[in-house]
Write a structure and sequence with these properties.
mainly alpha; about 0% strand
Length: about 240
């Protein structure tokens, strides 16, 4: 185990240095700080006591209305996939405590799929006036100039995997990228994130913060590396000219 503990922080630091001159550096750095801060906070008895009390209270309400609770969780996950200022992450421990990790994973993945498809539909059929109200317009414009409707599947996969999920949905909708290819990419890219998030939620509930930190930092390192690869591919495409 000791070599894995040393490898993960080293990998994060290495990928941070590779991204230091890109627009994504601040995002990755904030994720690292958030993971370390939450790991320290989650190790405190006061935090674990408060979390246990909250989970027990919410479970009692969910057990009385399981269908409504499930639908609300899926809706929250869908909104998180459409709006930059909404996150379903904070609800994952509650979903795990109420339904178990397997059900929470399925509901989270379904919610993200619904939200991704909705963001694609907004981009394709409602267009820019609505997008200005829902997300970062400069990011949409930035990637719209670099991703084409005929982009290779591997590039679209990287694009979906690395960016907040609402951005690829809106961009690919605006470009009228094939819906079925988009749905395939969406489903595949959201799977590892849903698995990781449900695992991290379970570790948080159990108070296993060392495992939480290692896995979370590993995910951040993978994301940072994927962002670096995406930037390189987009620069190469720009140098080669539009395809």
């Amino acid at each position: 185990m000791w070599y894995f503990c040393a490898f993960t922080p080293f990998t994060v630091l290495y990928t941070l240095t590779r991204l230091a001159r890109t627009q994504h550096f601040r995002r990755i750095l904030l994720l690292v700080v958030f993971v370390l801060g939450l790991s320290l906070l989650g190790s405190s008895p006061a935090f674990q006591g408060g979390l246990a009390h909250l989970l027990a209270a919410v479970q009692a309400d969910v057990s009385e209305n399981p269908v409504r609770g499930g639908l609300l969780f899926v809706l929250a996950a869908a909104l998180a996939a459409m709006l930059a200022f909404v996150s379903s992450s904070v609800l994952v421990p509650i979903a795990i405590y109420a339904w178990g990790q397997e059900t929470a994973f399925v509901l989270l993945w379904i919610g993200w799929l619904v939200g991704g498809m909705a963001s694609y539909a907004v981009g394709r059929y409602l267009g820019r006036p609505i997008l200005r109200l829902m997300t970062s317009n400069w990011q949409v414009a930035h990637y719209e100039r670099r991703i084409s409707a005929t982009a290779p599947l591997a590039l679209v996969f990287l694009f979906q995997f690395t960016l907040p999920s609402e951005i690829p949905g809106y961009v690919l909708g605006l470009l009228k990228y094939s819906f079925w290819r988009y749905l395939l990419v969406l489903g595949l890219t959201e799977l590892p994130y849903a698995l990781a998030l449900t695992f991290l939620g379970g570790a948080l509930i159990l108070g296993n913060m060392i495992r939480f930190a290692l896995v979370a930092l590993g995910v951040v390192a993978l994301l940072a590396f994927a962002l670096y690869v995406l930037d390189r591919q987009l620069k190469e495409r720009a140098q080669d000219g539009p395809t």
